[in-house]
Structures are given as structure tokens and as C-alpha cells.
Amino acid sequence: MKEKIITLIILILITLCGAGFVHSKISEKSDLKNYKIALSEYKKENYQASYKYFGKISLFSDIKPPAIFRRARSATLLGDYSAAKRNYKSLLFRFPNSQLYVVSEYNLASLLYEQNSRSAKKHFLHIIKYFPHTDYALASEYYVASIDMNKANKTRFYWKRKKLKNKALSHFIRYVKLSPDGRFAQQSIDNIENLGIVISPEDNLAIANSYFKREQYKQASNYYAKSPFKNSWAKYSLNELKNNNLEYAEKIINKGLENASAELEKEDVYNTIDEYISTKSDKITTINTLINKYPKSIYADYFTYLKAKYTTNETEQYKLFENIFTLYPNSTFSAEALYKVFYSNVNKKHYDEAIKLGQKHLASFQTSDTAPAVMFWMGKIYEYKNNSSLAKSYYRGVISKYPDSYYSYRAYCQLHKNKDIFISKKIKQKPIEFPCSDRHEQKMASKLIDVGDYDFVSELYKENQFVQSWIDYKEGNIVQSVITAQKEMEETYPKPKFDDAKWRLVYPLNFYNYVDKYRGEEDGLMILSIIREESHFNSNIESPVGAIGLMQLMPATANEIASIHNLDNNLYNPENNIRLGSLYYSKMKASLWDKDIYAVMAYNGGWYSVDNWLKKLNFIDIDDFVEKIPYPETQTYVKKVFKSYWMYSNIYK
Question: Which of 24, 154, 350, 352 could bridge 345 with an S-S bond, Cβ 3.0-4.6 Å?
Fold first, then answer.
């Protein structure tokens, strides 16, 4: 009997659990449906309906917090501030650990501020204390300062007024320092001036930097003049150069260099010196003057680097580069200088000396921009010396350590003994997926993606630039999506594997349907790589010289091709542009021994230039030829296109 009762209880529990599970699934389906309806109404600015449907989301749903937030926003836009505040407070009380907590508290505080409620300051201060590294904390600094300033203007007591003004000043200045070009920067500065308080030299510098950042150079001058000179001279002089006060700027530079300290950001000094030299007709004489006048300056390495950059004497140039990595081994410019001398020895076939320099470079500057080139050329040296095993070791090293490099592509070609190998003519198309591996762990984000609420996905992953790129892609902002993802990938170490969804954001298959349709006998990924580097997939772009659209074709060139093939020459139409660009590329390639690398050069530098270089330049092989292209822009372009080609081939192979 006892066993029968236990069995019955177990069956009842199983039935209840099953019923609960079914109810949960039905409720979840209903929640998603209501959220979609609410979001649609919200986007149509039908806030009464959106308020109603957001309110239908069940309490224990993963999307309840964003539903409450959207409901509060709907109420605000309807002018029902009591309902808005009620919903914000509900979200803060029910979901204290929600990722939407800070934005909800900020919106609540802003509403209270607009209504002159005393409790607004409490919320702003809470945000500043507990969410200090957010944009909301920055804006809260401004609002707290404004509240204190308003109180100061109303009080009758001098001591209280002074105290409140000083508190307001500290918050205004903090905002200006942390957000010099922010939304409230100018208002903060105006309010500081209205406080009638004498501010410190450091505060003057913060205001000067804000004006400089916003390119208001005349206003910046007044504040730089009252700033601590040792901390401001670089930007102060650069500001005067921007103001075209060249003589005064030169005085500031000389005074600054006489007593230069390491307190300044070196990049600021480099920018100032660059701008200063650009104003001079005789740049070498100007640089020599700086070298002779300040031989022991902490910027002596940069002066030497600039002299090497501008000198036309090759022997002197490489001597200067040698001085940089010998005298200033920890300099920002040592890696590049050492590479220049290394490659000079390769070019002169001084292979033993080059090997020593290459080994030194790879030991000291493994993460530098020039490391992939050095490792690749070490492989080439051993290949020239008929040491196949060491050559292959270096080539594999390039591919392993620097997978997203032009030199990885060239190393792959060397390993396969075919310098023009097509890595893949057919590709496997893959979708642009959400770039976070924890999507299924983030239930709220997952469901918001399903209902298309990208605004809140953006809020949840505010600091994740790959997610921001993905959202731009989903909303059709393709150019910004690629730029954001590329910038973030450059800062990512170690690099993810090629099957990671993040790479597809950096190298998407935009317009590939047209590429595949009109590529003819060409590799579609090569055409796509040209599109990526020419326009970043902006079909409406026009260059300063008049090149138009995805493949940046000149109208005269396009008209000629369109006329021959009886085609539409509207270059702003993506399909037309790709069709004409592909035909033009094929023409370049056919006229240059059917070599992609020459065709890519010609696409940027012109057919006659490439033909001329091939006839006049003294080069060992194709890799040496690329390094000797006399147009820096074309050399960089070739490396970018083939890097893209290599990446596309690995991502979609």
C-alpha cells in the first residue's frame, strides 16, 4: 500500500511538472508574440498600444526587464511621467541585477531632474559611485553639477553658495576632462564661466583641450595661455599652428623642447613636430636644426627618424635607421628602423648580416607591425641559400603567428611553390551570426535578438564592439559594421580561429551575388577583396578625384567599357559597378601576363606605371618587386588587397 501511494505521488509530481513546462512554453510563445507587437507599435510611434502590449509580458519572462523599460519610455513619450517613473522604479526594485539597471536609473533621474525633484541628485550620485566607467556616470556628473549650481544661485548664505559652487565646479571639470567633445562639454564650460570662480591652471588645461578637441582653436588659445606650460606646450603649439600663428607656435615649441619632460604624451609631441615641419619648405634643414639644438632631447630618436624619412640619400638614410635601433633600442621607431636596415641587407644579398638583424628583430619586436615581414624574408633568405627546411619553418611561423597578414598569404604561396596560386575559386557562403559564444547563456539577449530588438542588444553589449558591428550589419549600416569590426580585430590578441563569426563581420560577403555573376574567369574573392579595400562596400562613395561606387571606377574608364560591351554605365548602381569593374580588372590582368598581382597594382597605380616598373626596377622576384614599388600608396594597396584575399579564402574556403 505504501509503495502504491509513493508511486501515485511521483506520477502526480511528474504530471504537474509536465503541465508547468507546457504552460511555460505557451507563456514564452505568448510573451515573444506580444513583445514583437509592442516593438512594432513603438517603432510606429503608437505609444499607447506599445504601452499596453509591453505590459502583457509575464513577470518571470527573460524579457520582462526590457519590456518594463520600453513601457516606461512609451509613457514618457505619451507625457505620462507618473507612469514612466512608476515603471522605472518597478524595474529597479524587481531586477536589481539587470544589465538595464543603470540606464533605467539614469532615465528615472533625468525625469526627476526635469521635474525639479530633489531625489534626482541621489540617483545621479548613485550612478557615479556604482557605475563610474559608463557614459551614464559622465552625464550624471553634468547633472549633479547643474543641480548644485542652481542651488548656489538660490541660497542667501555666502558660505553655502561658495561651497555649492566649488562642488559644481569639480563635477563640471570632471565631465570636461573625461568627455572633452561630449554632448554637455560646451554647456559645462559656459557654466564654469558663469560660476565666477577663479579656476586652477589644470582646470584651464582641461577646458583648452576640450576646445582643441572640438577644433575651436581661437577659444583654446585663451585657456592654453593660463595652463601649466610643461603639460600643455605640445598641444598649445599645435593649436597655434592650426590658428596659423606660425611664429608664436615656433617659440612655444622651442621653449617646450628646452625643458621637455616625460610627463607629456609622446604622440602629442610627434603630432606637433609633424605639423611644424609640414609648414617648412626645407624640411631637412628644419630637422637638422632640431637635432643640433636639442641633441639630448627625449625626442632625439624621433628627430633622427624624421631625418631618415625625408632624406633622399639612401646610404645616409640607412645609417640613420641604424643609429635609431643602436642608440635608442627602446624607441617606438626601433622596430621599423631595424626592419629597414634588415631589408637593405637582403636587397644587397648580404644574407649572413641580414640573418643576424632578422633574428635580433624577431627576438625584440615580435608584436610589431614589421615582424611578419621580417619572418617572411628570413624564409626567403634561407630559400635563396637553398636551405629548404629552415625556409619552410619560417614560412609556417608567419602563418601561425601572424595569420591575418599579407605575408601569411605570400608564405602560403612559397610553401606551395606557386607564387600565383588560387587558394579557392569556389567558396562556402556562411551567414553573419551573433558574434558572442555565450548567446545561449544570455537568455535575455537571445530572445531580444529573436524579436528584433537590437537597441537593447546594443545596450546589453555596450562595450563589445563586435556586437555593435553585428547590430550595424543587421540594420543595414554595412560600411560602419566593417569599420567597427576591423578596428576591434586589430586590437584583439590572440586572434580567433578563422571559423569564428567575428571574422565574417570584418570580411563579409556583401554583394557577392553580383561578384559571382560577373566575375567571368576571375576569382570572385579577388574581385570582392578589391571592393572591400576600394569602398568598404559603400556603393554611393565618390573619391576626391571622381572615382565612383563599389569598385571606385573613373567615369571615363566606365564609359569606355560600357560602350564596348553595350552596358549601362550608372556607377552608383551596385550591379553595374561590379560588372564594369570586373571587366576592367580582367582587361588589366590580360594585358599583364595574366598575373593577379600585376593586375591589382595596375588597378591602383595604372597600367603604364606597372609596365614601366617592370622594365626599369631591378628586382629578384615578385616579392622583391612589391617591396620596391615606388608609389607608397600602391604598395600599401597591393598588400591590403592580397591580405583581404587571403582572409576571405581562409574564412570561406
Answer: 350
Q: Are 221 and 232 in contact (CB under 8 A)?
A: no
pLDDT digits (tens, 9 = 90+) for 321-359: 999 999 999 999 999 999 999 999 999 999 999 999 999
The answer to whether 351 touches 381, Cβ cutoff 8 Å, is yes
pLDDT tens digits, 442-493: 678 888 998 999 998 998 898 899 999 999 999 999 999 999 999 999 999 8
Q: What are the contacts of 367-373 at 24+ separation with CB within 8 A?
A: 367/493, 368/335, 368/336, 369/335, 369/336, 370/335, 370/336, 370/338, 370/339, 371/335, 371/401, 371/402, 372/398, 372/401, 372/402, 372/405, 372/406, 372/407, 372/408, 373/339, 373/343, 373/407
Q: Residue 99: pLDDT band by 50, 70, 90 thresholds?
A: confident
- Asked if 640 and 648 count as a contact pair (C-beta separation under 8 A), the reply is no
Structure confidence at residue 442 (pLDDT): 65
Burial of 137 (C-beta count, 10 Å sphere; 0-12/13-18/19+) = buried
- Looking at the chain, the domain(s) classified CATH 1.10.530.10 span 512-651
| Residue 310 banded pLDDT, cuts 50, 70, 90 | very high
Instruction: Give the count of beta carbons closer than 10 Å to the beta carbon of residue 54.
Output: 29
How far is the C-alpha of 469 from the C-alpha of 409, rounded, in Å? 26
pTM of the predicted model as reported, rounded to 2 decimal places: 0.88
Amino acid at 570: N
Are the beta carbons of 189 and 210 closer than 8 angstroms? yes
Fold entry, domain 512-651? Lysozyme (1.10.530)
Q: Cell 619648405 maps to which residue?
A: 281
Strand partners, 542: 548
Q: What is the pLDDT of residue 650?
A: 94
Amino acid type, 389: S
d(CA 473, CA 489): 16
Q: How many CB atoms lie within 10 A of CB 349?
A: 10
Burial of 215: CB neighbours in 10 Å, binned 0-12, 13-18, 19+: exposed
d(CA 467, CA 462): 8
Query: Is there a contact between 145 and 175 (Cβ–Cβ < 8 Å)?
Result: yes
> Is the domain 25-218 a CATH 1.25.40.10 member?
yes
The per-residue pLDDT for range 140-179, each reduced to its tens digit, is: 999 999 999 999 999 988 889 999 999 999 999 999 999 9
How many Å is the maximal CA-CA distance in the chain? 107
DSSP secondary structure of 180-222:
TTSTTHHHHHHHHHHHT-PPPHHHHHHHHHHHHHTT-HHHHHH
Identify which of 475, 603, 482 has the alpha carbon closest to the alpha carbon of residue 532. Answer: 482
Helix (H, G, I), strand (E, B) or coil at 553: strand
Average pLDDT score over residue span 31-38: 95
Beta bridge partners of 151: none
Lowest mean pLDDT among 26-30, 102-106, 647-651: 26-30
C-alpha to C-alpha distances, 383 to 69, 160, 395, 628, nearest whole angstrom: 65, 80, 10, 20
Residues 511 and 575: their CA atoms lie apart, in Å, by: 8
Q: How high does pLDDT run on average in the chain?
A: 92
> Are 122 and 159 a contacting pair, CB within 8 Å?
no
Contact 409, 395 (CB under 8 A): no
Question: What stretch(es) of the chain map to CATH 1.25.40.10?
Answer: 25-218
Check whether the bond before 494 is cis (ω within 30° of 0). Answer: yes
For residue 25, count CB atoms less than 10 angstroms from its CB and return exposed for 0-12, middle for 13-18, buried for 19 or more.
Answer: exposed
